Amino acid sequence: MSGFYRDIAVLRDGGLAADEDRARAAPARVPITVHEPDGNARGGIVVLHESREFADALLELMRSLAGEGWMVVAPNLFHRNGSTEAVFGDDLFADFDACFDWLTGRGVFDDCVGVLGFDSAGTAALLVATNRPVGAAVSVAAPGIADPLGAGADALVRAAPRLQAPWLGLYGADDPATPVDQIESLRDAAARAMVATLLVTYPGLRHRPDHPGFDAADSEDAETVIAAQTRIFDWFDSHLR
Predict the structure, then answer these.
(1) Which of 95, 103, 57, 93 is nearest to 77 (CA)?
(2) Are strands 70-75 and 29-36 parallel, antiparallel or unpaired?
């Protein structure tokens, strides 16, 4: 099957958790949104996102990634209890594992699976890359640099030295959610990892086309978006081989 469609990914061990009552209540499947390339996939990318809704820009990015030969899978991270809070810890890793198994079950090699996340899901993408065998990771505008975002999360400056996969971080240089001094601390922390890392900042807040305030008619916005997305594509091209 190729193109855009919905599917489910099965949680390992039927969603078993350490707490027996929680295990009985846990769903066994993760709803996923898939965009497959035409022909054989060169690898797979798990796209994490911080909202129940798929913005047009996110869907277009998934389509573009598929156009480059990647099999793209986006899990619904909020499928357990209807919450819209960021998902971290065991639940995040369980959902990622389900997507990982879905991809490898369709012929994608283990080391050709990448993870991409935006905002709080960008934080999740970095944390996944410290705990799971991914080939490459990209975080866009990921907060929680100095302090954990929530239960099950770690501050990124503490997590980054434990990165197990090449990691690219993209940030707005003037984003109040990620102050410059914190970004520099994260850059230093990531440099201590045993893998390749790169942290790039862009002027203003509008390096994401779905970020509030983006003006598609603004040539500077458009050029910045192209530059940022090109880095994402190049990072996966370079490390998922």
Answers:
(1) 95
(2) antiparallel
Output the six-digit token pair for 219.
């040539």
- Residue 119 CA to residue 171 CA, distance in Å, equals 10
CA 233 – CA 130 distance, rounded (Å): 21
Whether this prediction's pTM lies above 0.90 is answered by no
> Residue 44 in contact with residue 72, Cβ under 8 Å?
yes
21: left (phi over 0), alpha (psi -120 to 50) or beta: alpha
Backbone angles phi, psi at 196, to 5 degrees: -70, 135
29 Cβ contact partners less than 8 Å away, ≥ 6 residues apart = 8, 9, 10, 11, 98
Nearest CA to 136 out of 14, 240, 231, 19 is that of 240
56's CB contacts (< 8 A; 6+ apart) are: 210
Q: Which of left, alpha, beta for 47 (phi over 0: left; psi -120 to 50: alpha)?
A: beta
Q: How many residues does the structure list for the chain? A: 241
Give the pLDDT confidence score for residue 207 in this predicted structure: 46
186: left (phi over 0), alpha (psi -120 to 50) or beta: alpha
* Token pair listed for 154: 């770690």
From CA 27, how far away is CA 52, in angstroms rounded?
A: 17
Domains of the chain and any CATH numbers: 3-239 (3.40.50.1820)
Q: How confident is the model at residue 218 (pLDDT cuts 50, 70, 90)?
A: low
Please name the helix (run of DSSP H) or strand (run of DSSP E) that holds residue 231, with its range, or none. helix 219-239
Exposure on the CB side of residue 172, measured as CA atoms within 13 A: 21
